[in-house]
Amino acid sequence: MKTEKSALMMLAIILIPFVCLAAFVFGVDSYHMDFYSRYGLTAGQEEEIAYALGFDLAPSDKMSVSYNPGFWPKTIDYLSVYIEGIPSEEEFLARCHEETALKWWSGIYEHQKSASCTVDSGDARLKSVEKMINNRWEPWVLQCVLWGGLAAEVALIAGYRKARKKKSPAGADNALPLKIVRIVLTILAIGAIFLGCLFSFYGLLIFRLVDDIRHLNAEEQIVVAQMLGYDIAPDEDLSDVWFSQGFWPGSIDRIWSEFSIASEEEFFARCHEKTAFELHTYKRNDGSHYYHAELEISRNSEFMTKELVRLLNQDWLPYLLLFILFWSILLGKTALIITLFVKHVKKRKASPMKHLVILYDGMSDTPVPALGGKTPMQCAQKPIFDALGRDAEVGMVRTVPPGQKPGSDVANLSVLGYDPAQCYTGRSPLEATSIGVPMGEEDLTLRCNLVTLSADEPFAAKTMIDYAGGEITTEEAREVIAAVQSAFGDDQFTYYAGVQYRHCLLWQGAKDKLPALGTLTPPHDIIGRTIGEYLPKGEAAAPLLEMMQRSHDILNAGGAKANCIWLWGEGTRPALPSFEVKTGLKGSIISAVDLLKGIGILAGMRVPEVPGATGWLDTNYEGKAHCAVEEFQSGQDFVYLHFEATDEAGHRGNAEEKILGIELIDQRVLPIVLDYLEPLDDYALLILPDHPTPLAVKTHTSDPVPYMLYRKGWKGSRRGVDCVCEETAEATGKFGTSGVELIEKFLKKD
User: Fold this and answer.
1) pTM metric for this prediction
2) For residue 400, with 0-12 CB atoms within 10 Å meaning exposed, 13-18 middle and 19 or more buried, which class applies?
């Protein structure tokens, strides 16, 4: 993960909770105290609302609704309803239900006669009307900000930890002390943030729903009354003022009060030009009237001055709650940040350990007379490889277990740490996995080579000219496989195109035929030989032989480079344990060969595609090297970089091409990967072939192969050899009995 991206993620992690808290505070704070009026209700809505509040509305009545929107969408915290046009109190009472929220009210003027009610959030009657009245869009936006922000916070923390973990060394976070520190800090962070949120809820909700009362002395009554636009008389009592504290210290959201007035004339005589008080008149049972001066103002009122707020609200609790809120958030975020970084407190030597295997397929050989009795490894100019070898462990290892066929499938499984005796079910299933063949438990797959046979003899007398179909391209091969599928494909047999000459046949439901198929010979083992004695034999293999014979007639007529299919490498559906579970490392395989890709897929490893990777000498060397570096940079711990050209040259018996294949890796691959690895604190490099493909026999053998194991810390140790080859490796006396043993040594950190 790049530094800039990491910094942006951390900044977002720090800021998002404050955005969420701001949305919450703004929502609750705003909606509780700001009244909104709802007019333009339909007659049906008005009637339904009135009925829910316990009153039968008449067509002549005029209704108005004021409310506080709730923080949650389509909720209301406070509802005020006024119904005008009711002629008398008697008619009002006649239309009321047994439990009504409405009360009769009449002012000093006839037009002020009305029914009114206020309903708070605890009244069940509010639930039946709130969704009808409150259809404001702001709560939805704030909910999206709040919950979207919290979800983004969780996702960012998870993504950041995952990204940082990719840059951490394998096992660096497994030490018990560090785990304890991380657990304690995480608990502290969660607890602190939870405490802050709890107090913010407490402050916002308690201050909104619980009213305070301020008892004023005589002097305070005079000052408060004047601030509210009234000159109070000595015999008038304004000692009790109710108000809703604001969430913020020294703030008030709503004030209401009332006191008795001797007469209407005296009230108006004492009122200022602008006053917050209103005169209400009430009728006693004996028919007489009495007067009250009443007020209710919200925080948006011009009368809600700072002086009035300071005089009435002297509570210390909001200060304490804010102190707890912001310090808990600050401490919680600090603890969370420390938690995210605690695994990086070790010195730089604890930085990620990278493991790179470079496998030269079939590189090992026997002395070649044409090369003066030397092997291609001895003749190749490989200065970087040999320079590493001088400070490395060099020895021999047996990659093909006794009794197993010396195929690339068996050998590469062994080098990757998988015991072929336990997990190998055949070569073609591994390739089929890479190609994407839908293989069932009872199915059988076979490798389908496109080969070139001699032209004139009867089929059994023909000679294997080229096991790779004249270096046929992938595009040409797809056309050939399409023709083969058209000729032989049915509900039993399906041909799948792969890469170049390597393809696959799916034989459905044929698992039980596997023991009777006998030996199906790889075509690269019989270059230059008559094919008759190597053809499939027996009744079970008869369909295979028939398709091979008929394919020669079809492809010969089409003039393709490859004039026959060759079926071999039979096997059933495989299963491999996860490489990451097995080793604790995230691994990748980079190869142009379906066999290696299939192993990677089955092992749960990443298998990136490299444009121009062919498996020949013309492969994209730089592309594969850069791909390996990119895999490491993306967080992978282990990369298996496979090159096929040396094996292909061995099958052809071409010494010059085999030497060139070794030299090209030294020239075009090693400089790139070492340029990335050298600045790292630590890395391990393993270079070896999977098996020998001697030029003399043009096929694989089971002989041990040389290996070179290098670690950065060994630089300058002079523990190795001057030229890494079969002879010097054997002379060291170091011998690994299996690829599994070697890979365990390679992955073990000294």
Assistant:
1) 0.53
2) buried
